[in-house]
Amino acid sequence: MLKVYVIHENDAWTAPLTDALTELQVPHETWHLDRGFFDLAAVPPEGLFYNRVSPSSHTRGHRFAPEYTAATLAWLEAHERRVVNGSGPFRLELSKAAQYAALARSGIAVPRTLPAVGRAEIAAAARRLDAPFITKHNRAGKGLGVHLFRSVAALEDYLDGGGFEDSVDGVTLIQRYIEAPAPFITRVEFIGQRLFYAVKVNTSEGFELCPADACQVGDSLCPTNDNGHSIADRAGGPKFQIIPHFESPLIERYERFMRAHGIEIAGFEFIADAEGDVFTYDVNMNTNYNADAEAVAGRHGMKALAQFLASEFAKCCDGVAQSAAA
Questions:
Q1: CA proximity to 265, closest of 299, 302, 239
Q2: Domain residues of the chain, as ranges?
Q3: pTM for this one?
Q4: CB 242 within 8 A of CB 201
Q5: Half-sphere exposure of 21 (CA within 13 A, CB side)
Q6: Residues pairing with 115 in the sheet
Q7: Is pLDDT above 50 for 41?
Q8: What is the pLDDT of residue 225?
Q9: Mean pLDDT computed over 295-309
Q10: Which CATH class is domain 113-176?
Q11: Which of 71, 82, 178, 272 suits 313 as a labelling partner, its CA being 20 to 30 A distant?
């Protein structure tokens, strides 16, 4: 039976999508790639495959899910299966340094960033930047490893103080801190390489900006307080707000970037400084949507994503089904 196969490593994040596919009566199956095996000599099943494995999988005990996913995608693509967000996009998903290099080559401004390996080298890289600056993990998600420093001395105290946590791939990014006139960033969501909506995100209480509902109700790496309440409650307003009728020259640039790299589903995050200069600092190809913000705006990302997958499934699999019937 032809199906949509959802490749993932997080049941909580995947459930809203499979619910939407069920509602559309699209046959589907999930492949949880935390562990397993497959035969490279075997022929993969026919169907459409959607990759939504996260670079933050190691925070859920799924350390080698990205590596196993990369092997699986190579197998699928060797057999010319239709893969949404396949090997090329996934390589960018796993390295922010690679993202920045690709964005800059496409003419999209990014903050000045120095990748470094080793504690002494991290401090040396920071001396190349004017303070303030931030550190972040190269393979990340959910704001992993993001810390703001006002001086190199403060960074050195952090590196020597026992609190330093290395990126899972060993690469730490030291990046110019873009100080916005108001504590907000913008995340722009694309489905099928087309703008779906943009979200205004309040950053006043931290950098961990995961929009998934599962994060808001208890993941310690997402923005909750000790009682499990969203920090939006403490800030006196919603953390995520969908922007009606969003317009920006960035939309066309992001669409071109997605086409150039074979990315079909993505969320881009950007920030503007006090002079109005705009910098893109993240591309998320495993995107999640916030139900509270969507309820207010009447937009539903997972339903739109399911509709896109259903449409692509029909395109790629109708011919296969007809051949099998003949």
A1: 302
A2: 3-85+305-325, 93-109+180-298, 113-176
A3: 0.89
A4: no
A5: 23
A6: 173
A7: yes
A8: 32
A9: 97
A10: alpha beta
A11: 71
